[in-house]
Amino acid sequence: MSLSILLTGGTGFIGINIAQELTALGKDVILFDKNELPKDAKDSLDKRKGNYTYVKGDVLDGKELDSVINEYKIGEIIHAAVITPGPEREKMQSKLITQVNFLGTVEILEAMKRNSISKLVYCSSASVYGDSSKEDKWLREEKTIPQPKDLYAITKFAAEQTALRYKKLFNLNIVVGRIGGVFGPWERYTGFRDTLSEQFLTSKAAIIGEKIKLPNVGYKDWVYSREIAKSVVALLMATNYNYEIYHLSSGFMWTIKEWCEKLKGVYPSFDYEITTDPGDIERSPLLIDRLKNDIEYKPQYDLNTSFKDYMDWINKTSDFWMYE
């Protein structure tokens, strides 16, 4: 009998993209999340080969995790549940952020151990590099030393390193994917994600006819949300891999100004202003040689491909910035 995949954070931005990729491959997925699944996402998932079930739940509840794992015969886990706070939420909800991002991961690890789960993919973040993010021309998993600064980055780094320690202590099958600067379908206001991408903000502004000011040009290796979904699933399905940590990004470098110019081609009245030097780099790009060579994953979404797909998705999705 085929086992199901537990996807924590399954109704979130990255979670829905992963769910689409898994169900398109015929996999059965349990979407474990506090937030409801948007109607447009339900309609999309209903058209795919695999089955999905939404379960409202809390990653901090170990008994609830055990119940779901047993009821739905879970064989593997993708852990993507997270709070992505801005500075104000970091001040107001410091304890909750730490609990969900770090202790929630510990609960997942304990549930994995108790229930003999065969594999866990932990979705980490490039934010763990913090003050090291500009030290090298390319950020490398084996060379660049993480120096996380804010609670989000600190808890993500603590969680991924704890996961890898559990892997060694208890002989668990765990792999970490550090996700780059992601944007694309299903990014929206959810109450758990404060740091929305420039692509989301400029696309919304273009549609509703607002001028937007951007604090920087966003020159970096942007990665499309469907790309992240494909690479996370590639990590899950890989039977042999040589590393514990993989960068998940595109390798394609471009500026937010290029994105805005493409928006102007679709929405001629769109107006924007960039307030910093076009040569500024927000952070060095993530080297993805491990992903390409070891997992044999080839990125598919450059600027042009991702823009076309995003515009197509927006045109088919009602109020894509939902839950404002």
Give the number of DSSP strands. Answer: 11
Helix content bin: 40-55%
The CATH topology of the domain at 4-183 and 222-249 and 286-299 is given as Rossmann fold
Strand content bin? 5-15%
State the order of secondary-structure elements, H for helix, E for strand.
EHEHEHEHHEHEEHEEHEHEHH
Examine the secondary-structure arrangement and name the CATH architecture of the domain at 4-183 and 222-249 and 286-299.
Answer: 3-Layer(aba) Sandwich
Structure class: alpha/beta
Layout of secondary structure:
Blueprint: E1 4-8, H1 13-24, E2 29-33, H2 39-46, E3 52-56, H3 62-71, E4 74-79, H4 87-92, H5 94-114, E5 119-125, H6 151-170, E6 174-179, E7 182-183, H7 198-208, E8 212-214, E9 223-224, H8 225-237, E10 245-248, H9 256-266, E11 272-274, H10 289-294, H11 303-316
Parallel strand pairs: 1-2, 1-4, 2-3, 4-5, 5-6, 6-10, 7-9, 8-11
Helix pairs in contact: 1-8, 3-5, 5-6, 7-9
Please provide a written account of the structure.
By secondary structure, the protein is α/β, with parallel strands linked by helices. It has a domain at 4-183 and 222-249 and 286-299: NAD(P)-binding Rossmann-like Domain (Rossmann fold, 3-Layer(aba) Sandwich). The chain is 41% helix and 15% strand. It contains 11 helices and 11 strands. The chain has a 7-stranded parallel beta sheet, with helices on both faces. A two-stranded parallel ribbon has the order 7-9. Helix 1 (13-24) crosses helix 8 (225-237), helix 5 packs parallel to helix 6 (151-170) and helix 7 runs parallel beside helix 9 (256-266). It is globular and about 55 Å long.
